[in-house]
Amino acid sequence: MASDAIFAEQGLNLLELAHVRTHKGPIHTSEALDSQLSYIEETRKAHGYSRAVDRLFDLVLSYVYDHEASWQEGKNVIWTSAPLFPVFYANDVLPIPISELGRLGSADALTAAEDTFHLPKESCSMVASILGEFYLRSGRTPPRLVVYNGQCEPLNLGWELLKDQGFDVFRIEAVNRPNVADDAARVAQLQSFFIDDIKQVSLWLTGKQIDENRLAAEIKRANRIIGKLRRILRLRLHNPLYLRSLATMYTLAGLSTYFGKPEAYEDVLDELIEEFEANAAAPIPTGKLVRLAWVGGRGQEFGVYKTIDDAGGAVTAWHNADDWTRDYREDLPPLEAYADFIITGRTLGSPVRQQQRIEEFLPEFGAQGILFYGYIGCSFGSVHREIQADYFHRQGVPSIFLEGSFQVGPASGQILTRVRAFIEMLTR
Amino acid sequence: MTNSLFSADLLPIHALIEAEQQAFIADEGGRKRAGYFCAYTPPEILNAAGLRHARLFKAGSPEIVSQGERYTQSVFCDFSKSCIGAFDKEGGDPFYHAVDKLYTFHTCASMKRAAEVIEQFVPTTLLNLPRLRNEAASRDFFRSEILHYRDDVAELVGRAVTDSEVSAQIALYNKVRRLLRDFSELRKRPNPPLTGLDFLELVRGFYYLPPATLLTAYEKLYQKLARTHDDGSRPIRLMISGSIMADGDRRLVELIEREIGARVVVEDHCTGYRPFAHTLREDGDPFAALADGYLDQAPCARMKPLDDSLDFSTGLAEEYGVDGVIYVYLKFCACYGVSKLEFLDRLTASGVPVLEISSDYSVSDIGQLKTRVEAFLEVLQGQRDDRIETNSKEHVHG
What is the value of pTM for the model shown? Predict the structure, then answer.
């Protein structure tokens, strides 16, 4: 691995690593990097001092291919957009998140979507990219999908179109907690329905009832991992650029999926904590660093993350699908605990409850401004952004809207310029 | 034909609707006023509680769309933007401003987001609506959401809403639905006694008028129209399918019927015939009847499986003997935009020619729209002439 080579070559210990510039190749500008993969490689090189980051990106890059290979070998592998990874692991099912298709997607996927599904030209890039990529991969990727009805309408319709391409789709019914305040009885009612959903999907996946002891063990693992992520985010506050923004986003993304390899992912987190703790004694001076919150989709235009870091910023607070702020309740039976975690979650549903969650963690992470991120053509994210940006504006927290594309490709120069300008403004 | 959009026979009904809207705004009688957006919201509960209520589907004005764009991006459908814009206190629509409480079932994601904006302007309760319409679990879940809706309504009016009151409303609304179906049946005649614009006005009445008022007025009208002789030349018969056609969005039907001379004989959309194709069960638990009945109604493309919507659409085209279908989806309407190819393919496979139109509430494309619709109708006329010629030859040689 790259970091192993650096260790051997330079005889460094972890304490010294943060001070070492390991990048030896030509310096790329953000605009020169033309795909997500290039940005990952660039970020990996920039973290030459961190074996944990190197291993993290190994997990990231092998995820889809390893699971597709497992499917070829006859293992139970599915694609999914449902927030049910511990349930899948408890059922011995290997899940691949559909969001990974964006990183793999290409301009060909968009063309395929346009030609095959005749999507209206105004369709959001995420939906077109996902449909096109599934079309191009059909026959060589697992044909079973578990999807969540609570997502946006274009995706919900898109799954129907995939049925004609030979994909078998299981839908988890939409259960959300739509209002800012709901009484306990209603929440319990929603949870009860969601528990039935979990039972149904388990039957569909394996033909058997879910083993609740296995689910309890997965919940314990999830809590352990959430705790480690919280530890990493807090350690990172002392030295944000030790783990740059893109690498942090991926570290967090693993919370939802474990990149298909739970033990290996947890090992990476342990190693990262070890590296941070070793470096805690010698933090890099970052007095002028502009700390930011990222709110919205994880984004597929990785140039944005690089630009943030290069411009003197760092994303320290995160609000996306990966909920690192709270644990599953272990005092409840496992199915109830799982349903409780989803239904009372504040990363989905009412924008006001989401806003409350953001407001709670902003101070601890010292965020001076918020980057609201959404995908081009996605109307649904835009409303939440407007409501939340207005609220935080009134609280004196500046923000900027970034709209990016979902499929592979460089971030537009305009987005990067806006990011730089925003950070420059906050620096003053 | 009058200068209004509909036949002279509809004028008294139009007057009733206008009076009801004025009363709603003026708060006559001091009753609480509730609004809802979608055809999946049972008005039976609102009426059982004695609320003044209306479906909020007034849209079609570019100004109101712009008003909504203050809170959304342009990538929202114009209907969603109009709903937001109409509630906006700066500008907007007095009818919407008069609403004391908004009830909205989570239908499409756009309308859910619209409601999340609107709750800044008016007290709003959002409710879940399952997508899997054929699952027993969906029905139980929807029933429990309807119970929550009933409790919320009861709190609004300050009294309980009883099972027997709800049962009585189901029976009453069933009568109205049957009557609207009867009106639509008249459109199966070769020369229907009511136009597509007339039918849209009757639907408007369904969503604004108290059902008892409506029954009295509509029954008389039905008797009159049913007696009309079925003679004269047979117009080209069309079905309109797709996204919502708002109260105020009449330009396409007006173009078809008043400028080109064809006839819309049925609608597969949620503000035309579609919501009236089904009757609710009147016995047993009224909330189970509402849950089953609203899930069993002819489905919006939002419901799953999509095949149910496709089957309904093709079946309706056949039932009404249409010469062609105009499939209209609002720009950015995912339900009917993303799935358009499925509809077009299924209708075409059933032998019905289809014209696809992507629409919004701007007025700039009316010329292009007219050209496309005229060309489509010319093709349909040509096909019909060919059929007549073939039939007459077969008759001669037979």
Answer: 0.88
